[in-house]
């Protein structure tokens, strides 16, 4: 069962690689004394700081480009439009949350049936959306500091810097603690949910994680099967009727050809009777028959 199309997997790959790069290069500036930053500096050398700035900006451009493509994808492709519709919060999410909490604390034995995207995945998606907008906007201001300093002043630059920094911390924690858990550490999918790389889930995984979606897919497949069977039956009837018509037409053609041959034969006989010697021959034969009879 397809979970992520090739286009969606490419978007995801560009997003997570650019995000991780931004986190490493951004925190490298904020925490230069951290042990992992010192390792990077040791590996790269004296140009580590300059390289950090270049890599950080390249990663930001990649993230913005991936975000713009995603915007195009959800606005102008049918699958993308359905994707964003399925990500929209709905009233059922509140009941799913309540039922999930009751199930997790042992107050209920019934695990709620979740659709294509659970309330958790919906929160993740929209957190990424608004987080990308905020980090992109504040990062753009910090990138072109000389230009925006005249517009927002030092206070605006400080606010942008703090917002960008703390939003990066929040996003990092969300990815490491929340997202990575559901992808790698969750016992239901450990050691890894391969949908982000392969694009597919097995039926067993669908039954466990997205049973409501699976029911809808099975129903759709059954309807398509029944429709295909109806079309096949209609096609079979059409072929049978076409063959019957062809056989009837062949019989009629044979009858017409036979009638035409009879008409031609009759015309030939009439033509023979009208020849000059034909009458004398007939009279001579008649005299011989009469003489014999006497």
Question: What are its keywords?
Answer:
mainly alpha
Protein described:
This protein is 84% helix and 0% strand. With 294 residues, the chain is mostly helical. The longest helix is centred in the C-terminal third of the chain and has 63 residues, at 211-273. Helix 3 packs across helix 6.
Secondary structure blueprint with pairings:
Blueprint: H1 6-30, H2 35-44, H3 48-76, H4 78-87, H5 91-104, H6 119-143, H7 145-185, H8 195-198, H9 203-209, H10 211-273, H11 276-293
Helix pairs in contact: 1-3, 1-7, 3-4, 3-6, 6-7, 9-10
Radius of gyration: 42 Å
Number of helices: 11
* Helix-strand makeup class: mainly alpha
Tally the beta strands: 0
Oligomer type: single chain
Low-confidence stretches: none
Intertermini distance: 105 Å
Strand content: under 5%
Name the helix and strand elements from N-terminus to C-terminus, one letter apiece.
HHHHHHHHHHH
Largest sheet: none
Helical percentage: over 70%
Shape: elongated
**Arithmetic mean of pLDDT:** 86
Offer a concise description of the structure.
The chain has 294 residues and is an all-alpha fold. 84% of the residues lie in helices and 0% in strands.
